[in-house]
Design brief:
Length: 507
């Protein structure tokens, strides 16, 4: 799915009205209908539960009014509260007139804001994507009032006061929603940890925006769901052999961290690599041979850490980093690898830390390398803390452009930046995956997919990130989130990839 800015959303609305010959209030009616269908499926018909709808002066408020009318038709008597303003949008006014006279609809009095019971349900339709500045005055007071009421707030389109695609000034008034129910496409704001307390759980409901307009609209950000990946992972042909899926080399492990090499190796094999060779220090030889008999092991002459770069000729891709340590000799192995490699590279963990502490190595990164830092590793890579989550994303975009690489930023919605500066946000995964070794598994999966010659660098990265998160979701069903360990992820990678594999039409 594309992620549109607030301005692009309004363009998409206009294009839809033109292409489909509908008026703006008809589009609003679709939004209200979709919202009500969602709400009614969850709303127990409890006449004792107070229901309040807070409406602002624009089309977000218009949505709120249309929702109030529709809920009334379903037997729910909401109290409608209007934010005083000097100007109201045309569709606000139209839907104000359409309200049944029996519905209680009052202007908000800033001196006496309505009492909200803690069991009340509040629909927040104060401001949407038309927000042009932080809330102040009565609007801010109303939002603070909602937030301190303890009522369950459902935001219509976006929590009021939240910008759709840029940061909030600190201390601005924003509604704390339990749910955010948005339309057609997600907003960038929903994906950032700094906004989680306002956005709550979010979802998007289709309202039939013009697909041609959206298809042709250039965007900087994408949200990657299963539909987005459909057809990108070809089925294995009957006559494929080990060579088709590539021979990967993984350089990983040091004393006390051979487990990282084992986890990455298992994941790489489960992600379908043709052959896997693991380069480990001598201390890891027996462990790898025993724990991962499907992999071949190369022993480094040193006991505790990797000191030598193997001959790279046999390999279709090389992964380096999990549990590697940051010894000087290991850094030189990384330097040689960056100089000599002519095949795709996947760099993680200590390989990234070495890049961070030795910025001269960054200049050696071969184009199309794939880097998988978490935010702390990323900060070391760029050498500058981010002001906020938006700034971090801009740093990520700039980094991938500067080094012509694919750079991941791990998190709840893991982001991938491409050399052309586009960001892709992954949709799978759960908090159970915040556990040691989870990143090693990701490295193994990505290494396998980068070794697969059938996949572009972008598709390999997107499929790997999605499958890693999906494996976490499948595993957590059995283990629970707290009980999830990284080894479980590796066990479910095959199934996650199978779900993504293109089926061949019968005819
Ligand atoms: N495709 C869709 O997603 C659809 C969305 N719809 C809904 O329409 C709103 C956007 O409506 P718009 O009128 O453009 O903006 P708002 O309702 O957010 O309010 C604009 C209104 O408020 C004034 N304003 C802006 N910032 C402030 C401020 N800080 N303080 C006070 N006043 C402010 C501004 O000048 C305007 O007068 C979208 O979110 C959806 O909910 C459509 O219903 C259908 C399709
Ligand atoms: K809102």
């Amino acid at each position: 799915m594309k992620i549109l800015t607030a301005a692009q959303t309004s363009q998409a609305d206009q294009a839809t009205m033109q292409a489909q010959g509908i008026r703006s209030d008809e589009l609003m009616e679709r939004a209200a209908a979709a919202f009500c269908e969602w709400l009614l499926a969850r709303l127990a018909a409890d006449p004792a539960r107070p229901l309040h709808i807070f409406c602002g002066p624009g089309n977000n408020g218009g949505d709120g009014l249309a929702i109030a009318r529709r809920l009334y038709q379903e037997g729910f008597r909401a109290r409608v509260w209007l934010l005083p303003a000097s100007k109201y949008s045309a569709d606000f006014q139209l839907n104000r007139q359409r309200l049944p006279p029996e519905l209680v609809c009052q202007a908000l009095n800033p001196k006496r804001l309505p009492t909200l019971a803690p069991n009340a349900l509040v629909l927040d339709a104060l401001f949407g994507t038309g927000l042009s500045r932080p809330l102040s005055g009565t609007a801010a007071d109303v939002v603070q009032h909602l937030n301190s009421s303890g009522a369950c707030v459902v935001a219509v389109d976006i929590p009021s006061g939240l910008f759709a695609n840029s940061p909030q000034p600190p201390d601005s008034a924003v509604t704390r929603a339990r749910y955010t129910v948005s339309f057609e496409l997600p907003k960038l704001a929903f994906l950032l940890p700094q906004n989680a307390g306002w956005v709550g759980e979010w979802l998007v409901l289709p309202i039939g925006l013009d697909p041609t307009f959206i298809h042709n609209l250039p965007v900087d950000n994408f949200f990657v769901d299963a539909d987005f990946l459909a057809g990108r992972l070809p089925a294995r042909s009957k006559f494929s052999h080990k060579g088709t899926f590539g021979h990967a080399l993984l350089l990983a492990g040091s004393r006390g961290k051979i487990g990282a090499a084992v986890l990455a190796s298992k994941a790489c094999l489960r992600a379908g690599v043709g052959l896997l060779t693991v380069g480990v220090p001598a201390v890891g030889y027996g462990i790898v041979q025993t724990a991962v008999p499907e992999a071949m092991a190369l022993t480094d002459p040193a006991t505790d850490f990797v000191t030598e770069l193997p001959d790279l000729k046999p390999y279709a891709a090389v992964g380096i980093g999990p549990g590697l340590g940051q010894e000087d000799a290991t850094r030189e192995v990384l330097r040689q690898l960056l100089r000599k490699a002519t095949v795709p590279l996947v760099l993680d963990a200590d390989a990234l830390n070495l890049l961070g502490t030795n910025p001269d190595l960054l200049g050696l990164l071969p184009p199309d390398s794939l880097l998988t830092p978490h935010p702390k590793e990323f900060e070391r890579l760029v050498g500058q803390p981010a002001r906020d989550d938006y700034h971090r994303l801009e740093q990520l975009r700039a980094f991938a452009q500067q080094y012509r690489c694919y750079c991941v930023l791990k998190g709840a919605y893991t982001a991938l930046a491409t050399p052309d500066g586009t960001l892709y946000f992954n949709s799978t995964g759960n908090p159970g995956m915040a556990t040691g070794g989870s990143g090693d598994v990701l490295t193994g999966v990505l290494l396998a997919l980068r070794a697969d010659k059938r996949l572009s660098p972008l598709d390999a990265a997107l499929l790997g990130l999605y499958a890693h998160g999906r494996a976490g979701d499948l595993a957590a069903r059995e283990t629970g989130q707290a009980g999830l360990v990284a080894g479980d992820l590796a066990d479910f990678i095959g199934r996650a990839l199978q779900e993504l594999t293109a089926s061949t039409p019968l005819l």
